[in-house]
Predict the structure.
Amino acid sequence: MSHPITGNRRSILIYSLVWLMAAVTQGVLYLYVLHLHLTVVIADSLISSLMFGFLGLLAWYPTRYIPFQRQSPVYSILAHVVAGIVVLGAWVLITLVLLNAIFAYQEDYIEFLNQTLAWRAMLGALIYLVLVLIYYLVANSQKLQERLQQEERLRGMVRDAELNMLKSQINPHFLFNSLNSIASLTMSNPDEAREMIIRLSDFLRYSLKHRENEYVPLSDELGRMKDYLAIEKVRFGEKLLYEFIIKGECETFLVPTMIFQPLFENAIRHSVYESVDPVTVRFSCTQEPESMKAVITNDYDPGVPSRRGTGVGLQNVRQRIALAYKEKGSVTWSGQDSVFTVTILFPRIYL
């Protein structure tokens, strides 16, 4: 924790101006109330005020290293009393020595100096107390800022851990389904099984490659989703159709990696599996200056009972969007007129 005054130039300037104003105030009092000589006024005011201003900087260190304990304040108070005595003693001693050396020939002023010693000490003690209180406020403010920064770092670490956990839920689920599909094709159609293995390896390579990279351009993400749909199309043939409507400005928009895979998986699981007619899965996006809206739709037959699921896919995506964008993004879904629609709002991020 750095010194709150010497740590930056602005604080040094303000602190110096405060003590310069104190010296001017003292000088005006000496000149117009006590009617001292101008030379005495200037020397006494500057030496006593600026010297205390310098020594007042030292009050930070007992404040910094002697935290005030509410449960047992006696130790803190005694420590500050001792520190205050040291600072005040040094100030009074140095001031007296310098002024005596300068005005040794002016007996009237030396007598005045000795007579004002008590009130100088009391005023110095009051100023020292004010400085200590200010330093404590500054120290508590700095500690609060450090605590807030630490909490923010911890929240970021928790958020990253939650995101990684949510990512890890996707890959095993998808891998399980894909391996089942490959297993079913190895005997009936080895060539298609081989094609699925190649596409699956490309897809998993992408997933592993970007595990530490939270955001990728939309074009990269949809490229891998097309691989995924191509894998599933080997299984379902003409039952699965897909369409992508991507405007040029959307392609470079950054999105979380693997964010769409559970949505396409849900579309296939809850529509293609149950349908005897072709099902079209559509992806479209529109971009605003500070956001992008992505829409995924798929046909479904409301009269056919859907496969039972845990609902982890949609909830997973919703949680990832909430964590990645700190509640600024959104995920909504609805089913109407035999079309299931998922809409995601992506706020723009700047890496």
